[in-house]
Amino acid sequence: MATSYYWGTGRRKNAVARVHIAAGEGKFLVNGRETAEYFPRHNWLSGALSPLVVTGLEGKVDVFVNAQGGGLTGQSGAISLGLARALLKMNPDLRPVLKKAGLLTRDPRMVERKKFGQKGARAKFQFSKR
C-alpha cells in the first residue's frame, strides 16, 4: 500500500522549508536528523512543533522536513508555516484552529539592507565635529 504524502512550503526570513507529512507514529525528521538534535533550544523546537500541538496531532503523523537557508530561528518559523499548510491540505477542517493560532500567516519581516557610507542598516559612523 502506497503512503499518501501531503506537502507544504514555509518561508521565514531567508529560510525555506519543504515539509512532507503522512499518517504514522510521530516521526519528525529535519534534514534527516531528529528535531531535538537539530534544534538545541527549546523555543526553536516548540515553534516548529506548534501546529501539531495546536491541532492535537502530535504522535499521529510522520513529518519529514528539508530546511535550507537562514539560521535556526528562521528555519523553525519556516517549518511551522510549512507544517501548518501541509496539515491544512491533509484536513481542511483544521483551518479555524490554525488560523486562530496565527500559524497560517507568513511573517513578512526581513532584515533591512545595509546602506553605503553607514555602519549598518540604520547605524551610522560616529560623527566628529572637529
Automatic annotation (TrEMBL):
What are the TM regions of this chain, as residue ranges? none
Keyword Ribonucleoprotein attributed = yes
A GO term for molecular function = structural constituent of ribosome
Q: Name one GO cellular component term.
A: small ribosomal subunit
A Pfam family for this UniProt protein?
Answer: Ribosomal_S9
Which Gene Ontology BP annotations are present? Answer: translation
**What PROSITE patterns does this protein's entry cite?**
RIBOSOMAL_S9
UniProt keyword annotation of Transport present: no
Sorted UniProt keywords: Ribonucleoprotein, Ribosomal protein
Q: Which family does it belong to?
A: Belongs to the universal ribosomal protein uS9 family.
The protein in question is named Small ribosomal subunit protein uS9
Q: Which organism is it from?
A: Pyramidobacter porci
Name of the gene encoding the protein in the UniProt record:
rpsI
